[in-house]
């Protein structure tokens, strides 16, 4: 079957779908769905072709919705909820992560206030992961500039019980038993300073989808890498123009290649114009790529604002706060603007279908 690609583009006013054929040259824009509610994240589950959307409305309340027909119709799930008597209430969803192929009905959600929820019925109902919630270090978690959210859920390529979560501001936690227990996982190797027991603010944590143990992470300050068998985070910021940023993606097959978009820490916009930086050696070196991007434009891309497809020559995509979406059909070397004048883009997820 010929592959196609659909970009699930979350914005501050609804969910758009950008669709293209195998050439990835012409794009049709559909939507928005759910407007005017903000969509923090939307994802595609290749196991059963479901779609999920984190719809975070200030009017009517936040909710998770799912679609079983590629976005034609949507159903509201039973929202994540803390047990009766808990000291917190569900506010909004930051991330929805389909589970491992070996656990076909499992879906994970990270919410604010920071907590992890699991669904065992393909996103219809959710239960709190109490082992993470009962961590004594939870008392040290504090809100970042965007709130106190659990936004990164990294599931190992080989072992569904091996997973990490990233929290702003709470650090990284690792489970080797499918979430039954967790340990803090914040020890770094190299870099200008050692991280204490609660890591700095995590911005994005990714697991390689094919190679067990490979991880790529953006922290509020600095970039880190981890290879199979390692238990520390290797400092990989040198070569980037700044140590700050949100958006990141990792190659679907090559365990040495990843992309990120550096930003200015204070202004939250790109330095010397928007550019994507690529590493092909686990972050040891970085190359700037900006062909086709607007020269000198101080654009911004958010935490969920970047993703990639899994074509033979990988497509890479990112959205901006200005409402643009850019695509590269050559693994980040050159770029085309495929949508403009959308609302502020909060998330981009590439669904390879076929």
Question: How would you describe the overall organization of this protein?
Answer:
By secondary structure, the chain is mostly beta strands. About 0% of the residues lie in helices and about 40% in strands. The protein has one helix spanning about 130-135; strands at about 5-10, 15-20, 30-35, 40-45, 50-55, 60-65, 75, 90-100, 105-110, 115-120, 125-130, 150-155, 165-170, 170-175, 185, 190, 200-205, 215-220, 225, 235, 245-250, 260-265, 275-280, 285-290, 305-310, 315-320, 325-330, 335-340, 345-354. The strands form seven sheets. It has a five-stranded mixed sheet with strand order 16-20-19-18-17, with no helix packed on it. Strands 3-2-1-29 form a four-stranded antiparallel sheet, with no helix packed on it. Strand 12 and strand 13 form a beta hairpin. The radius of gyration is 19 Å and the shape is globular. The termini are close together.
Helices and strands in order:
Elements lengths: L3 E8 L2 E7 L7 E6 L5 E7 L4 E7 L5 E6 L7 E2 L15 E7 L8 E6 L2 E5 L7 E2 L1 H4 L15 E7 L7 E6 L2 E5 L7 E2 L3 E2 L12 E6 L7 E5 L3 E4 L6 E3 L8 E7 L7 E6 L12 E4 L7 E3 L16 E3 L7 E4 L5 E4 L7 E4 L5 E9 L1
Parallel strand pairs: 16-20
Antiparallel strand pairs: 1-2, 1-29, 2-3, 4-5, 5-6, 6-7, 8-9, 9-10, 10-11, 12-13, 13-14, 14-15, 17-18, 18-19, 19-20, 21-22, 22-23, 23-24, 25-26, 26-27, 27-28
- Largest sheet, described in full? 5 strands, mixed
Overall shape: it is globular
Number of strands: 29
How far apart the termini lie comes to 6 Å
Order of helices and strands: EEEEEEEEEEEHEEEEEEEEEEEEEEEEEE
Helicity level: under 10%
Stretches where pLDDT is under 50 for at least 5 consecutive residues are: none
How would you classify the helix and strand content by structural class? mainly beta
Count of alpha and pi helical runs? 1
Mean pLDDT: 95
In terms of DSSP E residues, the strand content is: 35-45%
Alpha carbon gyration radius: 19 Å
Strand arrangement, major sheet: 16-20-19-18-17
């Amino acid at each position: 079957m010929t592959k196609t690609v659909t970009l699930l583009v979350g914005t501050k006013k609804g969910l758009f779908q950008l669709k293209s054929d195998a050439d990835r040259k012409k794009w049709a824009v559909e939507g928005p769905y759910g407007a005017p509610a903000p969509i923090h994240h939307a994802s595609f589950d290749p196991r059963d072709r479901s779609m999920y959307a984190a719809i975070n409305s200030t009017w009517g309340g936040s909710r998770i919705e799912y679609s079983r027909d590629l976005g034609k119709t949507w159903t509201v799930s039973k929202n994540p909820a803390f047990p009766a008597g808990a000291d917190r209430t569900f506010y909004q969803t930051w991330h929805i992560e389909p589970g491992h192929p070996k656990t076909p009905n499992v879906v994970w959600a990270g919410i604010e206030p920071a907590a992890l929820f699991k669904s065992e019925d393909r996103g219809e109902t959710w239960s709190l992961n109490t082992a993470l919630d009962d961590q004594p270090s939870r008392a040290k978690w504090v809100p970042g500039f965007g709130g106190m959210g659990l936004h990164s859920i990294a599931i190992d390529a080989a072992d569904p019980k091996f997973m990490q979560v990233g929290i702003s501001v709470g650090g990284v936690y690792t489970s080797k038993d499918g979430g039954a227990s967790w340990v803090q996982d914040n020890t770094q190797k190299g870099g200008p300073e050692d991280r204490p027991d609660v890591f700095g603010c995590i911005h994005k944590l990714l697991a390689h989808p094919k190679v067990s143990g490979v991880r790529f992470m953006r922290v509020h300050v600095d970039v880190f890498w981890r290879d199979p068998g390692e238990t520390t985070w290797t400092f990989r910021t040198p070569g980037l123009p700044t140590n700050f940023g949100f958006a990141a993606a990792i190659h679907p097959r090559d365990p040495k290649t990843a992309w990120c978009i550096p930003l200015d820490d204070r202004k939250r916009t790109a330095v010397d114009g928007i550019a994507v930086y690529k590493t092909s050696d686990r972050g040891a070196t970085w190359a700037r790529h900006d062909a086709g991007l607007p020269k000198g434009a101080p654009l911004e891309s958010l935490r969920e604002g970047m993703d990639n497809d899994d074509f033979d020559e990988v497509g890479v995509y990112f959205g901006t706060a200005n409402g643009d979406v850019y695509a590269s059909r050559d693994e980040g070397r050159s770029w085309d603007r495929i949508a403009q004048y959308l609302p502020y883009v909060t998330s981009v997820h590439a669904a390879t279908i076929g």
